[in-house]
Amino acid sequence: MGVTVDVHEVFKYPFEQVVASFLRKYPNPMDKNVISVKIVEEKKDVSTGIIYRKRIAVCQNVVPEILRKVNILKVPNVQLEEESWFNPQERNMAIRSHCLTWTQYASMKEESVFRESMENPNW
User: Fold this and answer.
1) Which of 2, 3, 60, 69 is most buried by a 10 A CB count?
2) PRELI/MSF1 domain spans which residues (predicted)?
C-alpha cells in the first residue's frame, strides 16, 4: 500500500533565502522533536557547481505510547537521511529524504524541489 501527497507552494522570498532557511531550520527551540542534524557528506562538483549534501537527522519518536507496546516501535529516537543537490547556476535544489529506523518494516520518503517561481523570479 502506498500514499502519495503532492504539494505545491510558492514562497514569496528570494530563492537563496528559501534554500538557506531550509538548510538551517533544524534543530530549533520551536520544534523540540528534532534533536540534531549532522552533515555526514558534502562535496561540490567542480564541472557543474552542484553542491551535494547528505545529512542525518535524529528525532524523538512521536509514535503514540499505545502503539509502542509493539517492540519494533519502542525506540526513543528515529533517524532520517536527507540528500540534497543544490545547483546555484540553474537556481534549483532537489531534496530526497527517507527514514532509516524502520526500513525492514515500512518505508517513508519525501522528495522536494525548490526553484524560481514562473510568476516572479524573485520568489
Assistant:
1) 60
2) 1-123
| Angle at alpha carbon of residue 44, lines to 50 and 122, rounded to 5° | 35
Contacts of 86 (CB under 8 A, 6+ apart): 19, 50, 51, 52, 53, 93
Whether the pTM exceeds 0.90: the reply is: no
Paired strand residues for 97? 82, 110
Count CB-CB contacts under 10 A for residue 56: 15
Cα 63 off chain centre by: 19
CA–CA distance, 66 with 69 (Å, rounded to integer): 6
Identify the band that residue 105 occupies on the pLDDT scale cut at 50, 70 and 90: confident
Which residues touch 89 (CB under 8 Å, ≥6 apart)? 48, 49
* Amino acid at site 26: Y
Q: How many CA atoms lie within 13 A of 102 on its CB side?
A: 16
106-117, pLDDT tens digit by residue? 888 999 999 999
Query: How many Å separate Cα 68 from the centre of its chain?
Result: 25
Q: Are 92 and 115 a contacting pair, CB within 8 Å? A: yes
